[in-house]
């Protein structure tokens, strides 16, 4: 890349650091220009390997190379791509050693972690951070000719490679020892599900799909023709798992069923590669001589009685070239004709070799959305004219196959909440009654019912002790995106054009739910059709209703996707965007919910003072509406000032958490003794909480000092509270005296502040109490008069709960 100014991003990357040893010795007897030629040859080949595997050459430094996988574009298997590149680089170096009679060796270290992807002073983009340092340290302790990786790489790529645990190693510049693994070699490619090597969770909600597949297999066997089924769904929805479970059941219920599973791999180039893998397995090519295999193909084609000697010869020659590729030196002048002949040959051989055993077959093409163009064309060719053999083709793909005929579709849906309970029970070994429903809601919100996402997130939480038991619930806060899902989730975002990518990153900053006009105001430009395009990409969806009047509300498909997109933003970007969102939402806030949202963004934009004020304001509005749980949450977010402590205690009282409210006030009351007015207010609230616990005498003691306050509002409130407690103790005469004293003070205050809402509320409460006293004394006329006065006052300030 040239000098450029890119948008900095925080990225989850795999870093490869390699250093060639032996150049110093070469330089002693070779001309410097010859050494330069060798270095150029090696590094040119290294660049080709790295880039073909989806990596980015960060830099060449002397005789060392640094490569990055996961920036500027992430793949779901970046750790695997890095290890494959390392293996291929070691192989290339051996070939060059043999060719030039040299003795060069390479040490390679690979690590995965978070890093900053940025351009310094407009230079070529690079990654920075501890992930790079660890890769370099691994290289420095690696033995020549070997590849050392970190524990994180081993976890992410363990299903693709064999590793040897080399134990913990202390390295320079790090306080903690590194757990090191050596790469031994690559495992045989197989389906994504089976490579994982273990079934961790029960197979749920796919009974209807299994029955449909059984019906297709029955039809294929009874009619002797191939059937094609597309198993469609997003990454992690369970396509591979469904195929595996169906095969296990089919082998028990149907005689002579044989299965082949092939995996489309973008890192394994070659025309018709999955198809050729199936031919190799059915013909047992690895166990037979080349000439024997070719003779067997000729015989099988001949036995069908469908083809002439010329056709058999042509087909055999084509299959020979596909099974045993070699440099032919021929030039094809009519490539379209040659391709048609290959399709015909493959179909003919398919029919012939799958007819020889008189059995039935299930062929699984896993990850078909990654298949090479030739393989896709071949399957399309077969669907147009199905082979006359009992084969059930299962095509597992994230995409539609719109150009194909004669193909049934099974589209997998997310799992339900009930199934999630079963998965949680299995992973955490708990009973359903020991699982907090909020925990299940949290997982559903994060994963939208995707079984693989569910499983990985649950294991992530379990492995890191991020849960509490009895009942099972989340402990701690933060962004929970397992490393195993980072690539899958970000890969699609990375493929978006820059304008779309910017929009979705800003939307992720707003939250799982966001609004079109708010987003446009934050972006300071219109989004045009971008949101519609993001919706078509399956990343977001439009909500039927909006929390902000006159705006259109959207939501991310699931919270994990939002969090992964959000994680791309640098800390500075996040803070700037959050502040802007806070300003926009504050200007539009018409209710406590949007006000809370604005405060949240100010907080994450490091505008702590603004955030605290808005949280408190949202809490006050919610309290007045009787939304006490929400109000308590707002006050908790606002901070721990003495006034907020008082408001929290009042809210706890309204939620009937009397003991908790009392304890909260007692913890803080001594710290505000010098602030007399606030101290008295604490005392009044404490008395109210004690009264609710029927601790009447203690409550009266707490009121003693407050009843002597020089502030009219505090004194009237203390007198009223005293009257109320005496009423609860059935001391009606004393209660009436104190209530009237309180009323006198309030009426004097109202002469000055005629329409103050709080004073009117307190006067209405005192009237209510006096009415109740008269009621208990049997003075119904006075009681009715005071009840009527109270009702009138509450109606005046629209306090409906008190009116009732």
From TrEMBL:
Entries under InterPro entries matching the protein: A/G_cyclase (IPR001054), AAA_16 (IPR041664), Nucleotide_cyclase (IPR029787), P-loop_NTPase (IPR027417), TPR-like_helical_dom_sf (IPR011990), TPR_rpt (IPR019734)
GO cellular component: cytoplasm
GO biological process, one term: cyclic nucleotide biosynthetic process
Molecular function in Gene Ontology: adenylate cyclase activity; ATP binding
Pfam (any one): AAA_16
TPR repeats: 764-797
Gene3D superfamilies assigned to the protein according to its UniProt record, in alphabetical order: Nucleotide cyclase, P-loop containing nucleotide triphosphate hydrolases, Tetratricopeptide repeat domain
ATP-binding in keyword set: yes
Origin superkingdom: Bacteria
SUPFAM superfamilies: Nucleotide cyclase, P-loop containing nucleoside triphosphate hydrolases, TPR-like
Keywords: ATP-binding, Nucleotide-binding, TPR repeat
Residues in Guanylate cyclase domain copies: 14-139
Protein's UniProt name: Adenylate/guanylate cyclase domain-containing protein
Species the sequence originates in: candidate division WOR-3 bacterium
Lineage, top ranks: Bacteria, Bacteria division WOR-3
């Amino acid at each position: 890349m040239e000098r450029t100014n890119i948008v900095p991003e925080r990225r989850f990357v795999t870093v490869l650091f390699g250093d060639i040893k032996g150049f110093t010795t070469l330089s002693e007897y070779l001309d410097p220009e010859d050494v330069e030629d060798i270095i150029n040859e090696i590094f040119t080949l290294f660049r080709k390997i790295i880039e073909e595997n989806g990596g980015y050459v960060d830099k060449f430094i002397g005789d060392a190379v640094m490569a990055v996988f996961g920036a500027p574009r992430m793949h779901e298997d970046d750790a695997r791509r890095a290890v494959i590149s390392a293996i291929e680089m070691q192989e290339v170096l051996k070939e060059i050693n043999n060719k030039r009679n040299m003795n060069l060796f390479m040490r390679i270290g690979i690590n995965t972690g978070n890093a900053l992807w940025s351009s310094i002073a407009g230079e070529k983009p690079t990654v920075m951070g501890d992930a790079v340092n660890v890769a370099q340290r691994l290289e420095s302790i690696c033995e020549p000719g070997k590849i050392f990786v970190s524990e994180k790489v081993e976890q992410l790529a363990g299903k693709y490679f064999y590793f040897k645990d080399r134990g913990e190693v202390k390295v320079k510049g790090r306080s903690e020892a590194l757990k090191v693994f050596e790469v031994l070699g690559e495992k045989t490619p197989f389906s994504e599900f089976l490579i994982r090597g273990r079934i961790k969770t029960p197979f749920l909600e796919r009974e209807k799909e299994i029955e449909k597949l059984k019906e297709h297999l029955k039809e294929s066997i009874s009619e002797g023709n191939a059937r094609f089924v597309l198993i469609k769904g997003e990454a992690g929805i369970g396509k591979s798992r469904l195929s595996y479970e169906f095969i296990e059941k089919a082998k028990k219920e149907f005689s002579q069923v044989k299965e082949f599973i092939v995996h489309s791999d973008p890192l394994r180039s070659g025309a018709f590669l999955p198809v050729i893998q199936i031919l190799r397995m059915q013909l047992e090519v690895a166990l037979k001589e080349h000439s024997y295999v070719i003779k067997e193909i000729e015989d099988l084609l001949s036995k069908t009685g469908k083809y002439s000697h010329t056709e058999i010869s042509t087909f055999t020659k084509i299959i020979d070239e596909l099974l045993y590729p070699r440099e032919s030196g021929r030039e094809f002048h009519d490539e379209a004709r040659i391709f048609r002949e290959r399709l015909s040959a493959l179909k003919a051989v398919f029919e012939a070799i799958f007819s020889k055993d008189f059995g039935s077959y299930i062929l699984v093409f896993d990850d078909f959305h990654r298949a090479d163009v030739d393989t896709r064309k071949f399957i399309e060719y077969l669907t147009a004219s199905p082979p006359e053999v009992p084969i059930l083709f299962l095509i597992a793909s994230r995409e539609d196959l719109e150009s194909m005929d004669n193909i049934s579709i099974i589209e997998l849906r997310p799992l339900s909440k009930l199934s999630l309970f079963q998965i949680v029970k299995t992973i955490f070994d708990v009973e359903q009654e020991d699982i907090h429903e909020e925990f299940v809601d949290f997982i559903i919100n994060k994963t939208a019912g995707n079984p693989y996402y569910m499983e990985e997130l649950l294991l992530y939480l379990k492995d890191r002790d991020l849960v509490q038991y009895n009942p099972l619930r989340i402990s701690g806060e933060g962004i929970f995106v397992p490393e195993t899902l980072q690539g899958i989730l970000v890969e699609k975002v990375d493929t978006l054009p820059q304008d779309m990518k910017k929009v979705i990153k800003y939307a992720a900053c707003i939250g799982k739910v966001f609004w079109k006009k708010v987003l446009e105001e934050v972006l300071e430009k219109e989004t045009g059709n971008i949101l519609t395009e993001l919706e078509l990409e399956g990343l977001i969806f439009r909500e039927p209703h909006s929390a902000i009047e006159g705006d259109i509300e959207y939501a991310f498909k699931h919270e994990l996707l939002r969090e992964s997109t959000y994680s791309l933003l640098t800390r500075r970007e996040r803070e700037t965007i959050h502040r802007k969102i806070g300003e926009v939402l504050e200007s539009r806030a018409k209710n406590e919910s949007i006000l809370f949202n604005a405060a949240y963004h100010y907080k994450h934009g490091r505008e702590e003072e603004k955030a605290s004020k808005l949280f408190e304001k949202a809490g006050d509005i919610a309290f007045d509406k009787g939304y006490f749980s929400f109000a308590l949450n707002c006050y908790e977010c606002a901070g721990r000032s003495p006034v907020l402590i008082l408001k929290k205690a009042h809210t706890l009282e309204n939620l009937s958490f009397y003991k908790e409210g009392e304890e909260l006030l007692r913890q803080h009351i001594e710290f505000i003794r010098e602030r007399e007015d606030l101290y008295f207010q604490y005392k009044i609230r404490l008395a109210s909480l004690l009264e609710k616990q029927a601790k009447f005498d203690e409550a009266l003691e707490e009121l003693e000092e407050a009843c002597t306050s020089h502030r009219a509002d505090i004194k009237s409130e203390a007198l009223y509270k005293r009257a109320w407690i005496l009423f609860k103790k059935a001391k009606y005469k004393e209660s009436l005296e104190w209530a009237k004293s309180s009323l006198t003070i309030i009426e004097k205050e109202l002469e000055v502040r005629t329409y103050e809402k709080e004073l009117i509320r307190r006067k209405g409460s005192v009237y209510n109490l006096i009415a109740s006293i008269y009621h208990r004394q049997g003075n119904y006329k006075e009681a009715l008069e005071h009840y009527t006065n109270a009702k009138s006052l509450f109606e005046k300030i629209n306090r409906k709960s008190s009116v009732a």
